[in-house]
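To close the section, here is one more complete example, presented without commentary so you can practise reading it yourself. The ligand is EPZ.
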Amino acid sequence: MNNYAYKINGGKRLTGEVEISGSKNAVLGILAAAMMVDGPLTLENVPDIADVHVMVDLCRSLGAEINEIDVHTLEIDPRPINTYEANSKLVSKIRASYYLMGALLGRFGKATIRLPGGCNFGDRPIDLHLNAFRLMGAKGARPSDIEGGIIRMTASPLHGAKVYLDIVSVGATINTMLAACKAEGKTEIINAAKEPHIVDVANFLNAMGAKIKGAGTDTIKIQGVPFLKGGFTYSIIPDQIEAGTYMVAAAVTGGDVTITNLIPTHMEPLSAKMREMGYTVEDGDDSIRVYREDGAEIYATNVKTAPYPGFPTDLQPQTVVLLCLAEGMGKMHENVWQNRFQYVPELQKMGTNINLFERVALVNGITRFKPATVLATDLRAGAALVCAALAAEGTSYVTHASRIDRGYEHIVGKLRMLGADIERVDYSGDLEDIEA
Ligand code: EPZ
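Output:
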């Protein structure tokens, strides 16, 4: 399939309002959780993004009925599901397909699934997930049991367990919650992840009649129940990372943007850093306004990514772009992923001055980005490169833009509404194509 690029004629201030869509990392867990319900339900505020389309197709491949009421509303009835095997090619397209391990184990006491895919920034093990399932009684849940890239687990039945996560893991926290919902007895997740999307998945499960307490803290307790009922409507929380990306886009273009339909407390790690740098960040009830006071100096700062409420790793590339336009030298410490600076060589093509030392990027401030043709190495890196291109006077291209659309709904339309000159152009790998 022809890939495509975003052609951006940058140097324009972004102004106006932009509305945030539902959270990718909440809805992917919630779609998997919905496969355990014994009845129909409705999801609202579902983001119109590629990863959701893949997950919906995957759920349909199991037999679930999913109707699009409108682009943001899904009516789901998982009752026709007649298999615990999820090994279509779709599984290896997205990382979040691994939530079906917990959901199918929870529903059938069995799960056969292909290893997941997802962005490649270092190896992405699932040992914590498998360990949790094993503690809950699943057989076949050892890494050594994986054959030909497929995991085959059975548990008769799943029982509650005390699960200690030696690394704070979003995926392992959600997957353990899913499996524990219908397991016999009580499960305790210690050192659990506390991201907003963890809380959203737990709230959704409780709406189905699960008994989950403590989501959002580092200890989550789940009392297994025999039955999870449908018959309700659930609205997905706003996407914290999409919101942060637009906050950065506003700042680097010297703009004045109000980002609406968000939860300001979820943005605090980025808001605090932007205020520290000299930007004005005003919290509303469900909005944030970002701008730079006339004459305000923008200074570099140090940022360390960490599990929530620490600084989100998914805003790391965007924040490096922000640091590029600050006075002095900024530091970005990536403490969650082994290798999440693969986009830096692309940024260097835009005239930046960044030095990498393993998990630390030293960012020397520059006065402006140069336009260039750059490659989106992954979803968030691509969004960061779009921000840099919006700030760069002249025409830039961000190629492999389909990676950006995995997690950003209608990014071209939303940016155009803010005054950006951006369009999608076909690109099959040769620069000449792009010039055409
Ligand atoms: C989720 O990935 C998100 N993806 C990622 O966002 C995000 O970067 C990450 O959480 C951290 O916030 C989805 O929610 C679909 P982890 P996940 O398990 O669950 C190690 C985006 O841009 N680990 O919290 O895969 C792992 O290697 C994406 O939206 C193990 O060692 O992340 C990493 O170093 C990119 N063993 C750390 O834990 C395991 O079994 C955190 O990973 C699992 C994880």
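Once you have examined the tokens, check your reading against these statements. Residues 264-277 form the longest helix (14 residues). Residues 24-235 form a domain with the UDP-n-acetylglucosamine1-carboxyvinyl-transferase; Chain fold (CATH 3.65.10.10).
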